[in-house]
Amino acid sequence: MRFKQAILFATCTALAAISLPAAAQPFGDYEISITNISEAQAFTPFLAATHAPSLRMFTPGEAASDELADLAEGGATDPLADLLWSFPGQVRDIVQTEGLLMPGETMTFEITADVFNRRLSFAAMLIPTNDSFVGLNALPLPAREVEVYVPAYDAGSEPNDELCANIPGPVCGGAGGSPLEGGEGFVHISQGIQGIGDLAPETYDWRNPVAYVVIRRMRR
Fold first, then answer.
1. HEC profile for 166-190?
2. Following CA atoms 179, 75, 43, 56 in sequence, which dihedral angle do they give, to the nearest 10 degrees?
3. Burial of 124 from C-beta contacts in 10 A (0-12 / 13-18 / 19+)
4. Is residue 14 part of a domain?
5. Which of 132, 142, 189, 209 registers the highest number of CB atoms within 10 A of its CB?
6. Cα–Cα distance between 100 and 25 in angstroms, integer?
7. From first to last of its 220 residues, what are the pLDDT tens digits of the chain?
């Protein structure tokens, strides 16, 4: 069973943020715009969260939580949302989007932060892949606006056999999770589509980064 150690939980304070002038404090409502720049892969619905600086949705080099694996293998966002909410006081807001984000498309949503929960994370599965996901990990929210490029990671929870029987979504229509199978065992940058199974690299491979993101603090 994969451990939940990808979520790091510790006591934190917000004294530095509280000492900032009101106009510079990184909390309030934010507009998040995500553009799929992969040219080859669709993104499943996103899970986004604002949370404490000590919280992590995943940690490269460590095992993915079962809940992150559910998202990376099958696009499910509810298990990870439930896990995040289980850390009282460490999460301010969670947004779960709907529908696929195709290459070249942009989606926008709003999310709320506060002085204690001022980091942003999000994740969505890349399809068709076995267990690759686009992930932003605990980015400090800006006082005004920031632009970032986000890579695709491999959850390391499922073998990258590239067989449609093990890949969900409109291209393959296969199974989502594979709880009885093992992968590399740790989160790492995805190696893309290698052409070892049913997927042609010339059609479905990509180069990182896969997402362009604009984060803007909204003025009410």
1. HCCCCCCCCCCCCCCCCCCCCCEEC
2. -80
3. buried
4. no
5. 132
6. 33
7. 333 333 333 223 232 333 344 444 558 999 999 999 999 999 999 999 999 999 999 999 999 999 999 999 999 999 999 999 999 999 999 999 999 999 999 999 999 999 999 999 999 999 999 999 999 999 999 999 999 999 999 999 999 999 999 999 999 999 877 666 778 999 999 999 999 999 999 999 999 999 999 999 997 6
Query: Which stretch of DSSP H or E encloses residue 73?
Result: helix 66-74
Distance CA 121, CA 126 (A): 16
- How many domains does the structure of the chain reveal? 1
Peptide bond between residue 170 and the one before it cis (omega within 30 degrees of 0):
no
Element (H, E) at 70: helix 66-74
Q: What would you measure as the largest C-alpha separation in the chain, in angstroms?
A: 56
The two beta strands, 47-51 and 42-43, are unpaired
Say if 69 falls within a structural domain: yes
Domain region containing 182: 28-217
Q: The CATH number of the domain where 193 resides is what?
A: 2.60.40.2130
Separation of CA 181 from chain center: 22
